[in-house]
Design brief:
The complex is a heterodimer of chains A (118) and B (124). Chain A is mostly helical and 118 residues long. Chain A contains 5 helices and no strands. In chain B, 53% of the residues are buried. Classes of the chains: A mainly alpha (118), B mainly alpha (124). At the A-B interface, helix 1, helix 2, helix 3, helix 4 and helix 5 of A face helix 1, helix 2, helix 3, helix 4 and helix 5 of B.
Chain lengths: 118, 124
């Protein structure tokens, strides 16, 4: 088990950097790295990544806030409804995240990426 | 429609989609904030603050199910602290248009990962 600690530290280092640069929580990399590097099953990996992201998001958010870049009102207007939405989304994940829906969402992300890149 | 109402509706939608498809909140928050008229820098910074209540609720629910391994989470979280600061410094030093295009690359990678898992037929 102690061998897993370097993997966990490396996971945190990568997640922190991505969070700081891109404003993501870091779950994008924490979940796959826990599964591939620390013998996690997907469900506990997702759960543990949420707990780790509490530290990551607070640290990266505080750093950006110190740089004066946070729009606090919109953070609340988006974050609080999103918290309720995430509870609904977790329910939908089991029931409605079918293959066509996942592919449609991936297409939406690609269209968004195209708009941002232009 | 007022800016505030649009933000609340998009926030609820973003939270629903991120949990439904298992992608991070930031993946949908950052484009949402740019759509609301913020610079990419402000969108990145604001997304991180908006993520905090989402992951707090998620961690609390998962912890109640006993799925969270807190010791590992603390190690990952503690290791992320210095690089989170480093990432902020890098983001702040980049021009807005470069940061926006790099974020577009992240979206493409997330989309590829989603398609890969969907076509392999495994839910996660």
């Amino acid at each position: 088990m102690p061998r897993r600690v370097p993997t966990l530290v490396a996971t945190g280092l990568v997640a922190g950097f991505l969070a700081g640069v891109f404003g993501v929580g870091g779950g994008i990399v924490i979940v796959p790295l826990l599964v591939a590097g620390a013998a996690y099953l997907p469900k506990p990996a997702m759960a543990t990544s949420l707990a780790a992201m509490l530290f990551t998001a607070v640290a990266a958010g505080a750093s950006h806030a110190a740089a004066g870049q946070v729009a606090w009102q919109d953070a609340a207007l988006i974050g609080l409804p999103a918290t309720a939405g995430a509870v609904a989304g977790a329910w939908l994940h089991q029931r409605a995240a079918t293959r066509p829906m996942v592919l449609a969402f991936a297409a939406l992300l690609l269209i968004t990426a195209g708009k941002l890149a232009l | 429609m007022s800016h505030e109402l649009v933000a609340v509706l998009l926030g609820a939608l973003a939270g629903t989609l991120s949990a439904m498809f298992g992608v991070g909140g930031g993946v949908v928050f950052v484009p949402t904030l740019i759509f609301l008229g913020h610079s990419t820098h402000t969108a990145v910074a604001t997304s991180l603050v908006a993520i905090v209540p989402v992951v707090a609720m998620g961690a609390w629910r998962q912890s109640a199910y006993g799925s969270v391994r807190w010791r590992d989470a603390v190690i990952v979280g503690a290791a992320s602290l210095p690089t989170a600061k480093l990432g902020e410094v890098v983001a702040t030093s980049l021009p807005n248009s470069v940061l926006r295009r790099l974020f577009a690359v992240v979206l493409v990678l997330v989309a590829i990962q989603l398609v890969y898992h969907a076509l392999r037929g495994q839910p996660e």
